[in-house]
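To: structure subgroup
Subject: Chain for Friday's discussion

All,

I'm putting the inputs and outputs inline so they're searchable in the archive.
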Amino acid sequence: MMKNAHRVLEQYFGFSSFRFGQEPLIGHALDKKNALGIMPTGGGKSLCYQIPGLLLDGTAVIISPLISLMKDQVDSLNSHGIASTYINSSLSYEEQSQRMFDVQRGRYQFVYVAPERFDSEGFISSLRRTKLSLIAFDEAHCISQWGHDFRPSYRSVVGQLQKLGNLPVVMGLTATATEEVTKDIQHLLSIEDDHVVNTGFSRDNLNFQIVKGKEKHDFIQDYIKTRPKESGIIYAATRKDIDRLHQWLSREGVKVAKYHAGLSEQERKSAQNQFIKDEVTVMVATNAFGMGIDKSNVRYVIHYALPMNIESYYQEAGRAGRDGERSDCILLFSARDIQLQKFLIEQSLMEEEKKTEEYQKLQQMVNYCHTDKCLQEYMLTYFKDPFRHEPCGMCSNCLHTGEIKDITRESQIILSCVKRMNERYGSGMVAKVVKGSKSQKVMETRFHKLSTYGLLSDLKEKDIMQMIQFLVAEGYLAVEDGKFPLLRLTQESLAILKGEETVQMIIENASKAHQELDVNEDLFENLRMLRKRLAEEHKIPPYVVFSDATLKELCQAKPKTKSEMLQVKGVGEKKFEQYGVLFLEALQEETHQYS
């Protein structure tokens, strides 16, 4: 069967070989074994259920959490000549009925549905009369109560599946799953350990950056100005920030759209379509935007505010560079953002135990912003990535241009002060004491009598705070979980206090400048415009025609014949039949122009 899988991969999708992890996952499905795939965004998860769906007899049901994802995937499959459809609330009752009737008749190889569809006994009854090839849970972390985006409606599908009687092989796919989430998914979907394929979380094409101490608007303006034709997402925490950013960028002449829950469904849908079709280059949005958006040419993701946890951040940042091309993931850090996230946790309707868990996750996110370690390595450690990785060599910490300063003395003073304050106060109060503040609270608690009082009076209070946050990030200090976190010493801090270890910290991180494309940009732009015209004619997103990565390879290889063009990654027989001749003509015109 795997020989046929290779044939389908090349014929329909234009790839000569599978990516790491795809082959064993597809093999499990073809052997009718329930399986779970944990692969980073852009790792090719969709192919893991699409190829078995094409080879197995019957219709594949794909359970997807977002309407936008369904439409993107269906457009893409239909563009490859694969009969596919979706059934969700965007359709009228008559349209839903007709599509379900066609599904029962075996007209479609793939049908995408929302999890809420399984609440309908009529839908379950229709599936009983349908020959099913497989059922796939996309964004499978949504079914786990431990997942960062848990959805009760998604989890309830599991029980409903038992009513089918003709249950086929089941597959779960996700980009972000801690050990706890993985075990929960396995239990719910009856997946054995041997049938879990974890390729790790590493995204080698992503350049992670943390920007501190810069005015956010100035940074965004300068950054976007250098890449006016590139697609990017800017995530903000509140509707107010999104409206303000959208208005400002519009005035600056940026082609920008916005997306948040305060807009009507039609407004959100219109903004999303504009972004997918490259009619606007920048999307300003809350984190409600993007899950499952199969837009491969997003070149950067900027977080205007601190995300609530690392799982959310890695998933949102991972929407950049799905085509494998180098892309930027930038977090604009401000200490004020921490208070906003604490406020959101406190105002939520979560149980106290869950709030405590969210405070723990938020602290890990704050630690990420203050570590001097490789940023990608920090996140891979958080996820307990099964593969060992060296520093990425391209994040803002790996490429720092700041000064490496020995802060052992300052660290000893801070740690000693925490101890003398009986580990009952937070970073703000500790900073005031070692700075020598004469604030009322310092005087009332008589901390001005401590031997550590004022020993760092030569430093600014914000610089002391940064050192404290760094000591937390590196594990020399721990933070008690809660709304008002208290500092306490760790086992690691003893070696610093005894003078057995030194502490070094990077001062004033700087990010690496944007690298220019190693292709003829005029030719690349011509091919982009041809792609956009064809996409408009076929009423599909541009990246469904060809990805940016494929266009760049066409620019470099400059194929002259069909056989040469079929050697380019992303060009299969089906794609060549539809668009190949037009792109060959465009490439020949360019050759004549410069010869």
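Points worth raising on Friday:
The chain has four domains: 2-198, 206-382, 403-507, 521-594.
The mean pLDDT is 87.

D.
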